[in-house]
Amino acid sequence: MNGEHKITTSHRRRGALVYLRQSTLMQVREHTESTLRQYALRDTAVALGWSPTDIEVIDTDLGVSGASTRGREGYRHLMTRLCLGEVGAIFGLEISRLGRSDADLARLAELARLPGPGRHDQSAARKKCREP
Q1: Residue-range domain boundaries for the chain
Q2: Residue 101 falls in the annotated catalytic set
Q3: What CATH class does 4-130 carry?
Q4: Is 14 a residue whose pLDDT tops 60?
Q5: Which of 34, 80, 90, 119 reaches 20 to 30 Å from 111, CA-CA?
Q6: Which residue out of 10, 23, 51, 68 is catalytically annotated?
């Protein structure tokens, strides 16, 4: 697997999120292979050392466009968990599943770089998580 040497015990102490998204319900119906490949990322997380009980599959955004964060409850949940420092890794087929907006992806990348709880300024992290 690609990048497994970068995963540390610190990552595994926090949960792993598997984020699934396809833009339309028609894609969900017609491209079942993609959906199955996305669900299979849970097995990848297990293979990389996460306990099955520490892996959350977020599939509430299946059939929802990534053009905006509006109406994407799964994405909001992912960002909330990330802001709380509860996420050690996010698994997805490709970055565009998380969003099509460069601003949204940049914000996610910035938040993902914040160190785990207790190793950074909590008020700074809360401020970043509240920014639009």
Answers
A1: 4-130
A2: no
A3: alpha beta
A4: yes
A5: 34
A6: 23
